[in-house]
């Protein structure tokens, strides 16, 4: 007897999330409050769209390119491979060649030492995170991937001049999901639902990201 | 040969969305802009969490009750029944009795005349929408439903004193999704993924909501 088990790989969204240098922290306030005599509680959110678990759209680094509403659902939903890379500092083409990734993989999530940062969900932004090099991005495009996910706030190493990783991936129409918490997930194949807010024209959006498989 | 077909039943999120009386319109601005010389585009969102397609948490009308992060994934994911009610003005227990809803239904989405309002996604808020009466809410709880979805901004008729529909549903732990666009969906059974932002302690959150089934 098997049971479907869900894994929520979304970082809890609070006003203490680490944010990219220069971006504001999310502000979460109450427009209406039962404690103040209103008939219900109504929360207000003010935040950059690249805080917490989120996706990027092509217009993030390609001016005039499509926004979040254009990401195709059949890229965001379907089988996904979780690959562990505990030793890697940069995910290069050579690292990917050595990783025994199944050839039919269309969606790939990299579990690295980054995930441990989510042990403290209110930690300060850490620039020394593991990410995908420009030649690693080319490798993913050449292999026909449709979605790539990483366990910190950017798919690209901090301070990369010209942002070649983003431009290679976004230029190829690849869906990018960033800020995943993969601590509880073993490597292997899962079903993925990676669903961002459908903010028209936006370069990014908060996303809720879930894996599931039958276990037992 | 069958093909999986996805239906995005999420209203596109813009700063022209109709909003509940007293709630502000969403504001969507750019923190960073390539046209202004930044290396990338970064959008900022400022909005009430009950704008557009969204979910409610128990704390929306039950002060001190759980927030969005507590909604169980196995209620938000799974088979869902789309039921059309083109004639109804209020979804009462009697209307539900007459609707031939399969007895094993755990997730139900009501397609009403409301959906036509989304022909103009920038229409003014319309208070005369179809919603679930207090005895209709009791009917859904008695039948063991886990999720209910409606095609306008509230599951409860406008101006209901004391909000009995919300309190009945939220008190029973029912997941509520509001602001769906069901125009393109025929009645019947689908798979549902209804994924809100995981805003800790919040009474609501924007959600991306998708149906799929095999067709062909």
Q: Report the CATH architecture of chain A.
A: 3-Layer(bba) Sandwich
Strand content of chain A: 25-35%
Give the chain pair forming the largest contact, with residue counts: A-B, 56 and 56 residues
Largest beta sheet of chain A: what is the strand line-up? 4-10-9-7-5-11-12
Percent helix range of chain A: 10-25%
Q: How far apart are the first and last residues' alpha carbons of chain A, in Å?
A: 6 Å
- Low-pLDDT sequence parts of chain A: none
H-E string of chain A? EEEEHEEHEEHEHEEE
User: Structural class, from secondary structure content of chain A?
Assistant: mainly beta
Number of strands of chain A: 12
CATH class of chain A: Alpha Beta
Estimated radius of gyration of chain A: 18 Å
User: Quaternary state, please?
Assistant: homodimer
User: Please, what is the CATH homologous superfamily of chain A?
Assistant: Putative cyclase
Shape of chain A: globular
Tell me about the biggest sheet of chain A?
7 strands, mixed, barrel
């Amino acid at each position: 007897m098997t049971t479907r088990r869900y894994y929520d790989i979304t970082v809890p969204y609070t006003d203490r999330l680490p944010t990219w240098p220069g971006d504001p922290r999310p502000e979460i306030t109450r427009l209406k409050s039962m404690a103040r005599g209103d008939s219900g509680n109504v929360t207000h959110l003010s935040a950059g769209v690249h805080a917490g678990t989120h996706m990027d759209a092509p217009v993030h680094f390609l001016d005039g390119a499509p926004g979040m509403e254009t990401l195709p659902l059949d890229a965001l939903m379907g089988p996904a491979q979780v690959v562990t890379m505990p030793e890697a500092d940069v995910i290069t083409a050579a690292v990917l060649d050595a990783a025994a990734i199944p050839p039919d993989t269309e969606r790939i999530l990299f579990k690295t030492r980054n995930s441990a940062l989510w042990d403290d969900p209110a930690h300060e932004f850490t620039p020394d995170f593991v990410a995908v090099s420009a030649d690693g991005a080319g490798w993913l495009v050449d292999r026909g991937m449709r979605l790539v996910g990483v366990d910190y706030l950017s798919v690209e190493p901090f301070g990369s001049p010209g942002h070649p990783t983003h431009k290679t991936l976004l230029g190829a129409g690849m869906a990018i999901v960033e800020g995943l918490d993969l601590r509880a997930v073993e490597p292997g194949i899962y079903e993925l639902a990676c669903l961002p807010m459908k903010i028209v024209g936006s370069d990014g959006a908060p996303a809720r990201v879930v894996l599931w498989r039958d276990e037992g």
